[in-house]
Amino acid sequence: MREVARRVFAGEFNDATHTFKESDEERAPVYVLLPTGERANRIFIVGTLTETEDVGEDSEYWQGRVVDPNGDPFFVYAGQYQPEAASMLRDLEPPAYVAITGKPRTYETDDGNTNVSVRPESITLVDAATRDRWVVETAEQTLDRIQAFEDDTNEYARMAEEQYDLPLDSYRQTAISALESLEDEQAEADENDDRTDEAETEPQA
């Protein structure tokens, strides 16, 4: 059975550095622990692909940078084992709205920090309306996770308390800021429409 693909903003995703398994079986799924108290084996993100680069040495290995409404980046990597996703990163012209389903991956850098990235299962070109829907749904899910955090039976929230010393309020603010950015974009679009209407109705000299 495939795992549910969680919706998460980049700010929280990049903080999700703790990984774990719930079984000793060799092929048991690996989860990242989201700081708002949920496990994630797959994630679903929609954002603006701002840059792509082939960072491979011996063979193609594509890196994509996908930015959410708060300006925080997801880093996506696809190589020979993700041929369809790699070809999308090769062919797409940034900036473009993309929807990505993939698996979280963590790796430790030389200086001891843990970076979190996405290994994509699929990358799809989408429109602004799809991005806007994702922002609303992701904000709702983030706020729901925060609301359920204090529940005594929430084992992943207790695990997050042990693993992370991170203020939940910052993720609440991330969700609110993302929603506000949509409102700002809408207001700007309405303003531009008004200007266009005014220009069209002005009498010709």
Can you give a write-up of this model?
By secondary structure, this protein is α+β, with helices and mostly antiparallel strands. The protein has one domain (5-193): OB fold (Dihydrolipoamide Acetyltransferase, E2P), CATH 2.40.50.140. Helix content is 37%, strand content 31%. The protein contains five helices and nine strands. The strands form two sheets. Strands 1, 5, 6, 7, 8 and 9 form a six-stranded mixed beta sheet that branches. A hairpin with a 7-residue loop joins strand 5 and strand 6. Helix 3 (128-147) packs antiparallel against helix 5 (168-201). It is globular. The protein starts with a strand and ends with a helix. The mean pLDDT is 92.
Count of distinct strands: 9
Poorly predicted runs are none
Structural class given helices, strands, pairing? Answer: alpha+beta
> CATH H level: which superfamily?
Nucleic acid-binding proteins
Largest sheet, strands/sense/barrel: 6 strands, mixed
CATH architecture: Beta Barrel
Radius of gyration: 20 Å
Percent of sequence in beta strands: 25-35%
Count of the domains? 1
